[in-house]
Amino acid sequence: MMIDPLVLLQAYAIGVFPMSDDREAQEVYWIEPKRRAIMPLDGFHISHSLAKTIRQDRFRVTANRDFAGIVDLCAQAAGDRPTTWINREIESAYRHLHEIGFAHSVEVWDGEELVGGLYGVALGRAFFGESMVSRRTDASKVALAWLTARMRFAGFTLLDCQFMTDHLRSLGAIEISQRDYIQLLEGAVDDVPLASGRAVLAGGSGSCAEVAFGRLSGAVAGVEGVSPLPPSFTVSGPASGQDILQLLTQTS
């Protein structure tokens, strides 16, 4: 039985998200961490090697081109991850959220091969990162760098990483209390009309997500002239790696 999309969005809006114990597990349980990992949008750490990879456009980066492929890649077992928390019910729920405009993916390609990326849920000015994956060196780091840059550009205020890992900490993520997280969350979703019930499902993630995850082919309405970046970044793409680095290193 698929998780109701309204219940899922309402859960995110109060700081709760679903997980499972195993890919084949039947149970889904709800998590509310006492300590929360977030990525400050002005605090992404870029190593010299990662900056070089991004600047040289070693990978092609897209948004919402293969959501199902990213979820499937994240759900696969790997040498360092023999199992996954993404069971069939959770996978179906997020694929449905994507279909109605609330779940989004960033894909990283080596030629025509999908080699990494991430997916999550956008609601108002918050993005809730669910999972990321890498099948090439730095592929997931490139995806997170592009996500962070696009979120800064689009006016997001919160990038939720859920649980802290060494990988996230090396990129600039910090850990905060649940109380502090809820304060940030409330400000990020205060304009989302969740009280309207199922009517909210027709509205999609909102204008911030439209700018951040717009199709990488053509202009994004209402963005021209907003950014101090070169014109190549004022359309949905593809933005260059140099543009991404410039936005990530700009101070507020």
How would you explain this protein's 3D organization?
The protein is an alpha+beta fold and 252 residues long. It has a single domain, classed as Aminopeptidase, CATH 3.40.630.70. The protein has 9 helices and 9 strands. A 7-stranded mixed β-sheet has the order 4-5-6-7-8-3-9, sandwiched between helices. A hairpin with a 2-residue loop joins strand 5 and strand 6. About 10% of the residues have low confidence.
Briefly summarize what is shown.
It comes from Sphingobium vermicomposti. With 252 residues, this protein is an alpha+beta fold.
For this entry, give a set of tags.
Acyl_CoA_acyltransferase, single chain, Leu/Phe-tRNA_Trfase, Leucyl/phenylalanyl-tRNA--protein transferase, 252 residues, Aminopeptidase, Leu/Phe-tRNA_Trfase_C, globular
